[in-house]
Amino acid sequence: MKRLLSTLFALILAMTVCCSQELPKREFRGAWLHIVGNQKIKTMSMEQIQTWFINTLDTLQMTGCNAVIFQIRPQADAFYKSELEPWTRFLTGEQGVAPDPLWDPLEFMIEECHARGMELHAWLNPYRVTSNDEEVLCKDHLYYKKPYLFKRYGKQLFFDPGEPEAIEHTVNVIADIVTRYDVDAIHFDDYFYPYPVKYEEFHDDDSFVKYAKDQGFEYWQKNDWRRNNVATLMHKINDTIKSIKPWIRFGISPFGIHRNLSETPDGSGSNTNGLSNYEALFADVPDWAEKGYIDYIVPQIYWKIGFKVADYEILINWWNDSNFKGQLYIGQNISTFDAPDLVNPNTTQMARKMELVRTLPNVDGNVWWPGWSIEKNHLSIADSLSQKYQKNLALIPAYTDIDTIAPDAVTSLKVKSKRIVWKAVETDDVMQQVHFYIVYRFPAKGVVDLSDSQYIVGITREPSYKPADKRSKKYKYVVTVVDKCWNESEASAPLIW
């Protein structure tokens, strides 16, 4: 009987370890928090907004997320203090009107994210100025100073991507953000040239005639010229970011289809039949990745498995197999996660989608849309993440294209006032300075195995850690450092406590 129990215990232990190791130690787990179209914020006080943000971040932390992609410039405006663009109407209800009392939502969110061991990626839209023809721009808006930089299309107003001054303005806005704020990345979504309006052409003939020939494009190459305009913006933004703070990443979240098979004579497109980035939005995202203009891609694969026009499984395999430079995360639409599985209709497609994310070799994580749905536990998404798919904490994959050098290990682990404290090695090399400390807890007599995510108990900016549970037995603690590109140091000497 003892031998049987021993064998059964060993089997259960092996299964537990196996299940634990299915949760990767490194995985990007982002959540988009949008403000565009949000009519709730303008009715709330500063305290109410901050409480809502805190509750949302607490939920994201509890569900294992490690990055927040926070919208700060939805329509050539600012959800932060800016001298270049007006306060957004989504904060106060009227564009150009500052919050009262004055506060900075971006600074607030950066501090709160970092305090929870999460990154803050600042999300901007490069070209959109209005969402409909009823919106009123404030008198100080750039539109009234330089109207030639803008074009009306459908019921909306956009920057003209062909105007060099429009590019310069956007680059200046981002340079200002990167200089003044401790953001971890700059992020664009899928709005480049505007989505097509039926029976209407985007009227950029003036800028095409003015600039195209000198830029090397003939009259029949207008689409190539448009793609070059966007690529020029991406290149200049990345160069500007890296010249100011070389560790800050630049990420793009394009529409999920790059090009359809029918659009590519060489057969390189995906077996889909929807709108495409390359043909409709004039965004050649893979080319930007190959040239090093961007550090990560998050294709918005917002459809169900089996959707004929744009099948999720076809698209995630296409992006994985293409193996472009930089990291690849998948934009996940939470509202599709209750769709029945095609093999077992009694379950949803979530298990299959997560299996694809974690078995395809070039996929490095997910970004959840919309992030506010996690806070509301829509479709029990918070339960699924916290109890199963993101149960263990995870480090963001290292951005080794930017930096490969790991920081020095921490020293002098000891217990002080019921907290574990340590010291970091000081350095003048900003690339190796502390981004976060990673705290591991192992059985007191166990082996230190930094590869297993089940042993990560804390990600913190503070050089100390207090166990959350009541101490009933001793454990072995070690601490590592990750730098701003998520290179991890060696483990500290262990502390038994």
Describe the structure.
This protein is α/β, with parallel strands linked by helices and 497 residues long. The protein contains 14 helices and 18 strands. The protein has helices spanning 2-21, 46-62, 89-92, 105-115, 142-145, 164-180, 205-211, 222-244, 277-281, 285-290, 312-322, 350-359, 372-376, 381-389, and strands at 28-33, 67-73, 119-124, 150-153, 156-159, 185-188, 249-252, 296-297, 327-328, 330-333, 365-369, 411-416, 419-423, 436-443, 456-460, 464-465, 475-482, 495-496. Helix 2 (46-62) runs parallel beside helix 4 (105-115) and helix 6 packs parallel to helix 8 (222-244). Residues 1-21 have low confidence and may be disordered.
Question: What would the keywords be for this entry?
Answer:
497 residues, alpha/beta, TIM Barrel, Immunoglobulin-like, four-stranded antiparallel sheet
Compact overview of the structure:
Helix 2 runs parallel beside helix 4 and helix 6 packs parallel to helix 8. The protein contains 14 helices and 18 strands. The protein folds into 2 domains: 363 residues, TIM Barrel (Alpha-Beta Barrel), CATH 3.20.20; 86 residues, Sandwich (Immunoglobulin-like), CATH 2.60.40.10.
Number of domains: 2
CATH topology of the largest domain: TIM Barrel
Total strand segments: 18
Mean pLDDT across residues: 94
Classified in CATH, the superfamily of the largest domain is Glycosidases
Strand content: 15-25%
CATH architecture of the largest domain: Alpha-Beta Barrel
Q: Biggest sheet, open or closed, and with what strands and sense?
A: 9 strands, parallel
Low-confidence stretches: 1-21
| Largest sheet strand order | 9-8-7-6-3-2-1-11-10
Gross morphology: globular
CATH class of the largest domain: Alpha Beta
Helix content: 25-40%
